[in-house]
Every structure is written in C-alpha cells, then in structure tokens.
Backbone:
C-alpha cells in the first residue's frame, strides 16, 4: 500500500467516503505510515474514525498556525475547514503542505480536493507534494465528486484510481478514458460498487463495499 497516490472519485452518496475511511483504517492497522492527516469540510469521517483528533481551522493568517507541531503531537489528526472562504482554501493548504512535507511519513487525505487543486489556480505546494512526496514517504489521497474540476497535473499524478458512480457526462467521458471503460458503465455502477485501477501495472479490480 505504500508509495501510492490515490484518487477517489464518485458522486455524493456513492461510497467514496466509506471507502476512504476503510483505506485510512487499513493504513493505520498495518502501520503503513506514522501519521495520518485529513482535510475535510463535510464531517465525513467523524463517525467511522472516532479516534481522530479534530482541529478547527479558523480563517486567519495560516502562517501563524504551527501545523507541524499539531501533526507531530497528534499522529491521527483531522483539520476541519468548513469555516474557510473559497479564496482561503489554497492559502491554507499551501501552509499545511509545507508542514506535511517537513514531517514526512504521512498518509495525507484531502476531501473535496477540487477546492484546493482547481484547474486555474491550484495550490502550488500541493502540486509539489504530489510530485515529490514519495521522497518523504507521503501517500496522498485526493477525494472529489467533481473530477473534471480537478487540476490536470493532479489527475495525472495518481497511480491508484478508485471510481464509484459518476453522473456528469464530462466526468464519465474522461474517467472512462483512464479506466478504458465506456462512460455508461461508470454511470451504471450501483451504489457502493467501485472500480480500482493500478495505473502502474494496469491491474483492474471491480468490487462492492
């Protein structure tokens, strides 16, 4: 499971958050990474992962927050960012990525990833982390229901693609290209049914949670 760059796609309620919670728990059980850092604005993981330390991120000067110490003192931490404005998302993640890169040995989960890696103004430090994080033993997990809005570099960096049901034509067209599936096959996935592709080996798995 190490040295993975995960991209988890699916419409609301399709099972992507459930899968991501399972993935996090699996990493912890197998001691794959020393730290788990989660960014979430939807309260998706509180019930499934009750041992997480929750930290609310206020809309302040993010450089004044010692994210590195928070991570070092709390091996499993979730940063709650529901109070941030859209124009604050990227600035927040830039600062957090610096801390994650400094700490190293991290499973780094970012829900609603299109907020931080949009097509036109992505977090540059996040892009650097996606390219170079493996040198620091960082496994990123990007989760989104809007893959078409996600930066192209971020999509291409993923080597483990997990796809649940998608409904938007553009999303299914592009995702189908990566999976070598017809768009209608992705649209017709049942709830909690997924397709997993290892883009390094070409291995392909279809399953149900």
Residues:
């Amino acid at each position: 499971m190490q040295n993975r760059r995960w991209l988890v796609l699916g419409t609301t309620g399709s099972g992507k958050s459930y899968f991501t919670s399972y993935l996090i728990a699996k990493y912890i059980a197998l001691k794959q990474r020393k730290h788990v850092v989660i960014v979430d604005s939807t309260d998706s993981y509180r019930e499934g992962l009750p041992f997480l330390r929750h930290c609310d991120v206020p809309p302040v000067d993010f450089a004044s927050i010692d994210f590195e110490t928070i991570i070092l003192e709390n091996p499993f931490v979730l940063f709650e960012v529901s109070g941030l404005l859209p124009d604050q998302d990227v600035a927040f993640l830039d600062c957090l990525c610096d801390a994650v890169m400094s700490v190293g040995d991290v499973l780094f989960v970012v829900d609603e990833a299109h907020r931080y890696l949009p097509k036109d103004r992505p977090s540059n430090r996040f892009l650097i982390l996606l390219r170079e994080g493996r040198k620091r033993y960082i496994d990123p997990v990007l989760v989104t229901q809007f893959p078409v809005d996600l930066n192209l570099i971020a999509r291409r960096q993923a080597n483990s693609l997990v796809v649940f049901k998608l409904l938007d034509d553009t999303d299914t067209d592009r995702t189908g290209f990566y999976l070598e599936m017809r768009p209608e096959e992705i649209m017709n996935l049942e709830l909690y049914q997924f397709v997993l592709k290892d883009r390094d080996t070409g291995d392909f798995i279809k399953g149900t949670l």
Q: What stands out?
A: The chain has a mean pLDDT of 91. The domain at 6-161 is CATH 3.40.50.300 (Rossmann fold). The longest strand covers residues 138-144. Residues 195 and 206 are 4 Å apart (CA to CA).
